[in-house]
Amino acid sequence: MISNFLTRDTARLSSDEFDLLVIGGGINGVAVAWEAALRGLRVALVEKGDFGGEASAGCFKIIHSGVRYLQHLDLMRLRESVVEQRILRQIASPYVHPLPFLIPCYGWGMKGKPLLNIGMRLFEALSFPRNKGVDSYHFLPNHQLLTREQTLSIAPHLNQQGLTGGVVYYDCQMSNCERLTWSVARAAIDAGAVVCNYVELISGSVSKDEQGKERIQSVTLQDKLSGKNFSLKTKFIVNAAGPWLGKVLQRLAPSSPNSEEQKHRRLYTKGLQFAVPQFVNSYGVAVESRGIDEATVVSRGARSYFIFPWRDHSLVGTTDELVLTDPDTFVINAEEVEAFRREVVEAYPDAILKNSTIKFAFGGYRPVDRRYRADEFEQLKERDLATPSRDDLIVYHGRQNFDDYQRRLSNVISAEGMKYTTFRHYAEQIVKSVVQWGGFKVSPSKSATTNLPGVGAQSYYDLIRYYKQQYAQHFSGEVLDNMVREYGTFCSDLMAIADKEGRGAELIAGSRLPGAAVIYSIRYELAQTLSDIIFRRSGLGTLGYPGEQTIKQVAQIMADELGWAKERMTMEIQNLHVDFAKHGVKISSL
Predict the structure, then answer these.
(1) If we measure between CA atoms, which residue out of 300, 389, 303 comes closest to residue 343?
(2) Domain residue spans in the chain?
(3) CA 285, CA 104: separation in Å to the nearest integer?
(4) How far is residue 247 from each of residues 271, 404, 543, measured CA to CA in Å?
(5) pLDDT tens-digit profile, the chain (590 residues)
(6) Which fold is adopted by the domain 460-581?
(7) Strands 43-47 and 194-197
(8) For residue 461, which of 91, 94, 95 has the smallest C-alpha distance?
(9) In terms of DSSP bridges, do strands 284-292 and 268-277 run parallel, antiparallel, or are they unpaired?
(10) CA angle (419 as vertex; 313, 315 as ends), nearest 5
(11) Are 277 and 358 in contact (CB under 8 A)?
(12) CA-to-CA distance for 567 and 581, rounded, in angstroms?
């Protein structure tokens, strides 16, 4: 067991002086904090909500190898993705798992099996050695060619007209992206960073350095749980607030953009995915959408939707709609989810997909290529140019503008990553820029060889085997499998809570997690609200509303641990219902 509980140490935020303040606790923000702290910088990170609760939670749960970059002839991005996927299979082994994907082939042209076979051979040559150093569980085999009959045995509802067979290739998925995000946040804490959720930036204090350049010397923050404001001193700032980049900049140092500048405002797409009862097994399946990816150099026609098995359900995605919307108002409504479902059913008319209730929808805002401007919105929308950008953003405000934000700030970088897979490498590049422009002296990067918390020295198979031997008398094999996927070696801490304290050994209703998981997340994972537990620490709510019994059981455990009164429990449940409504989930008690 860990000897000390983790707490939101806002006292240290106000009393210490930091080398680096990271604003934003999504996957890229926490990765920057981890990378910088590992290299010896004094780091603080603040997140106005919970870690990974916004755009990061809206990802499609895939850790891509980069095979799609062949169509863009973007070999550098492909190689980066291959390397980073391999690193995650090593340093995040309980959270990242292999998954085969089926691409159906039609005719003998660009969609045919011969050309796709050549493309996959080229990819495998370029991605060598992608399996170096990984254990047998995480080994990704080379692609396989399937006959027409084999293809239909995997995906019987594919369009059969012109179908000649299929190609299976191997990628990876996350069982719970929110837990992987938290694991990186925990790694930053273990490396010495001060990391706090529910702390919001209010304003910045601007001064001038010796060269007369503007810089932020301190910021005013608000603890959203206590309502108290306080000041934090920092030498450098990384703005990793995702779609809130512009809002953060305006709070740091307000500017007054004119109408001409507003034309360059960053455009975003609203991405959308949903979960339904499982109707594809073992394989992910690509099906054609209506849209065309105009960014590809070697086009196979329409963009693909993907359907794949995930936690005994099927995930379907992704669609993108060009939007001009305030990120604070993000919500998924049932109508747009249903419209997306109907479009997928046209391409893959499975009865379960057609007739089952969508249990949960999720998504977020993703930036469009910066060459497209806000004043072109109507034309772009009409042409269905809603493809998210492939290029990561790093803007040093001492020398560059960010869209309509014109002020030069010599100690601020804005950063927005496009891909979950490459968060570690992206953070490494951001910290490299911080070191360059901030003049810091640091040790070499070691994040590529540093296991994340919860990852043991043994292989994933050995970890599973160990817990099944140790705790077979307490839990079934399915429960232990799930616990290792969610908590890795921290399963021992959950078991210690149940054994030593005599509480939390019972399973949460309708789940494969013991009540000790809730207690553990409160004590050691900075969980502050019922939504934190349901959505982001346990994943209980990411497949739809788990039911009143489950919610009340978790709320009661939290109340016992935190001393909540009945009124606080009621408020937390009401807030949780509101959060479900944002995901297109209708709850009768609302």
Answers:
(1) 303
(2) 10-56+178-260+391-449, 75-174+265-382, 460-581
(3) 8
(4) 21, 11, 31
(5) 445 789 999 999 999 999 999 999 999 999 999 999 999 999 999 999 999 999 899 899 999 998 888 887 888 999 999 999 999 999 999 999 999 999 999 998 888 999 999 999 999 999 988 999 999 999 999 999 999 999 999 999 999 999 999 999 999 999 999 999 999 999 999 999 999 999 999 999 999 987 888 999 999 999 999 999 999 999 999 999 999 999 999 999 998 665 444 545 678 888 899 999 999 999 999 998 765 555 554 445 567 899 999 999 999 988 888 887 788 888 998 888 999 999 999 999 999 999 888 889 999 888 887 777 777 777 776 666 667 777 889 999 999 888 778 889 999 999 999 889 999 999 999 999 999 999 999 999 999 999 999 999 889 999 999 999 999 888 999 999 999 999 999 999 999 998 888 788 899 999 999 999 999 999 999 999 999 999 999 999 999 999 999 999 999 999 999 999 999 999 999 999 999 998 877 665 44
(6) Helicase, Ruva Protein; domain 3 (1.10.8)
(7) parallel
(8) 94
(9) unpaired
(10) 10
(11) no
(12) 21
**Which letter, b or e, does each residue of 141-174 get, where b requires 16 or more Cβ atoms within 10 Å of its Cβ?**
eebebbebeebbebbebbeeeebbbbbbbbbbbb
Give the CATH fold of the 75-174+265-382 domain.
Answer: D-Amino Acid Oxidase; Chain A, domain 2 (3.30.9)
The span from the CA of 377 to the CA of 262, in Å, is 12
Tokens of 452: 């994340």
This prediction's pTM: 0.94
Class at the top of the CATH hierarchy for domain 10-56+178-260+391-449: alpha beta
Cβ count near 417 (within 10 Å):
28
